[in-house]
Amino acid sequence: MFWLLAFLVAAPPDVTYTIRVDPADLTGFDVTVHVRHAPPSFGLAMYRHPEYDDRYWRYFENVTVDGATITPADSGLWQVTGAASDVTVHYRLRLPPERGSQRGAWKPFLTPTGGLVDGPHALLYVVGAERAPSRVRLSIPEGWRVATSLATTMDSTQFYAATVGDLMDGPMLMGRFHDWRFTVDDTPHRVVYWDGPDAKSFDTLTFVSHVAAVVQQAVALFRRPPYAQFSFLFQDGAYGALEHPDAVTIGAPSTDLAADPDALLEETAHEYFHAWNLMRIRPAGYGGVTYRPRPLSTGLWVSEGFTMFYADLLARRAGLRLRDSTRESHLERLLNRYLENPAFARFSAERVSQASYATTPLFLGDYQGSTHLQGEVLGTMLDLLIRSRSAGQRSLDDVMRGLAGDSAGFTTRSVQDLVGRACRCDAGPFFDQYVRGARQVDVNRYLSLIGLRAQVDWVDAVNDRGRPIPDGRVWSYQPQGAARPLLLLNTPASQWGRAGLHSGDTLVSVSDSAMDGVQAFRRVLMRLRVGDTLRVVVRRAGGEFTARVPITGFRHPVVRLVPIAGASEQTGQLRSEWEMGH
Asked: Residue 407 phi/psi, 5° resolution?
């Protein structure tokens, strides 16, 4: 595009955003983008997030420009032509209605008492000026405050971003909220909680002190924080979370916290650990500001899986109570899920990593993998290998610190080399078999290094009352614009796969009930009973296909870790240190 050449010969544009929230109309907010030193022609684009591409450009209304012409050029891209030195772009973001009872914690919202605004959903950036600074001005209702990781100014409603990347990673939680502060390693941390209508009270002292305890353990692991300040932005009435270099947005329903102030502790630890592992310890080629489709990453088994490993471990090191009372019970539950999923014997960790951020859940065909689960198992086994070969002197901690020193971005080979240096052994066979190759991990080979073995029993899956659980190992999704949902199998070994159904089949009807959306199919799954027989009609490339699906129970693994008789004293010591999280 010829307008990119303008930035090679001119000073970068100076961009100021003004976001106006009208308390009388909370269906959306108005944005103006004032561009000084604008070239005659330039592009304005919506940032495409590596994980969450919610395509909020679909909800932009009345996009206009003063002193120039603006036209849509592509999905999420506008072209400004005939610009004078200074131009101002106007548009309104009409917030889409939320589906379900809760909203995604990373998505913008507005209520009479507060809301969230963020760059990937709301702000257009000047293409070609990704390294240029910008300012954000907020026009918000009286009495509202703002919590953000963006740099502050003397004005409490004006903020600064050194680059477009900083702007896109600077969520702004605004409104009336609770606010706590603590310091770790002379670095300020802020915990903000926005509560919705009918919020339940909870033990905030325990809640905040346990967040601080996790921070202390992470900083101790890496020996210093990688940021100047950090903000935890908790929201009532929301689910999920999104990490940023200097902040995290987390859904934290007050009803859950009222029952247990640690209900979100592991998720908080996970998202916070991403401040290192994913935000700064990145797979090679991951991230960067772009509006274009992104290449898929083969390294998310480290970014997500190792983060799962440390979400559990950091809380244990802090002495906090977790759902799994011991590391052994946590590993048993982890292996139950790992051994149950045949995807891990069919797809490498690199391939499952690519599937994690793929634009379609059909990436693995009739299988559904989890890079979080697969990566945590691999991280656990590597930790045991390093501990054993180094006589307890090193662990996965050393690998993480080594990764933190790699500013270029890691590859499978560089992780392998770090593991090899930590264990002073050849880690190649492990990576060839389980990371680059598709093979289920021989867990007993690595558990034996600390004197344990996994006793695996395959039993009938039953509910709390001891009754067989019907085989519902299938689900559906509905692509944007599709009239009907598509089928997704968890495994071809399910009754659904055995009946000849495949992921990607378009659901037409189930037992003569039309499938007009995912909710319709979800109701079918909720009503399943062992002994039922369903008549499932689907549409595929070859035409319609009718399957007869007999609903039976299914079997799943139950793992119990047991000591190996006659293990050496050194092995017993390694096991003890592992159990304590040292």
From this structure: -80, -15
Output DSSP code: residue 568: -
Q: Are 269 and 214 in contact (CB under 8 A)?
A: yes
Q: Which residues contact 477 (CB under 8 A, 6 or more apart)?
A: 361, 485, 486, 488, 518
Q: Is the pLDDT of residue 2 over 50?
A: no
Strand, coil or helix: 571: helix
Rounded Cα–Cα distance for residues 560 and 62 (Å): 61
By the 8 A CB rule, do 358 and 369 touch?
no
Return d(Cα 279, Cα 169) in angstroms, integer.
10
In this structure, the number of other CB atoms found within 10 A of the CB of residue 465 comes to 5
pLDDT tens-digit series, residues 75-97: 999 999 998 889 999 999 999 98
Q: Which two tokens stand for residue 128?
A: 């070609």
Q: Beta-strand (E) ranges in 108-216?
A: 109-111, 114-117, 124-126, 134-139, 145-148, 151-152, 158-161, 172-175, 178-184, 187-194
d(CA 413, CA 419): 10
Q: Which residue has the tokens 């009532």?
A: 236
Q: Is 360 exposed, middle or buried (0-12, 13-18, 19+ CB in 10 A)?
A: exposed
Cα–Cα distance, 326 to 334 (Å, whole number): 12
SS (H, E, C) 325-373: CCHHHHHHHHHHHHHHCHHHHCCCHHHHHHHHCCCCCCCCCCCCCCHHH
For residue 245 the two structure tokens come to 């270099």
Q: Do residues 112 and 26 make contact, with C-beta atoms less than 8 angstroms apart?
A: yes
pLDDT tens-place string over residues 553-569? 999 999 999 999 999 99
**Residue 461 carries which side chain, given as an amino acid letter?**
A
User: What pLDDT was estimated at residue 10?
Assistant: 63
Residue 469 Cα distances to 334, 472, 557, angstroms: 20, 8, 14
Q: What is the mean pLDDT of the chain?
A: 95
Q: Using an 8 Å Cβ cutoff, are 488 and 477 in contact?
A: yes
Task: State the pLDDT confidence band at 12, using cuts at 50, 70 and 90.
Answer: confident
pTM beyond 0.85: yes
Local structure of residue 302 (DSSP, 8 states):
I
290-344: pLDDT as tens digits? 999 989 999 999 999 999 999 999 999 999 999 889 999 999 999 999 999 999 9
Two tokens, residue 494: 């399910």
pLDDT digits over 483-506, tens only? 999 999 999 999 999 999 999 999
DSSP one-letter code for 260: -
Average pLDDT over residues 498-527: 96
Side by side, the strands of the sheet bearing 87-94 are 60-66, 87-94, 25-36, 14-22, 134-139, 158-161, 151-152
Rounded Cα–Cα distance for residues 91 and 80 (Å): 14
d(CA 515, CA 458): 34
Contact 289, 168 (CB under 8 A): yes
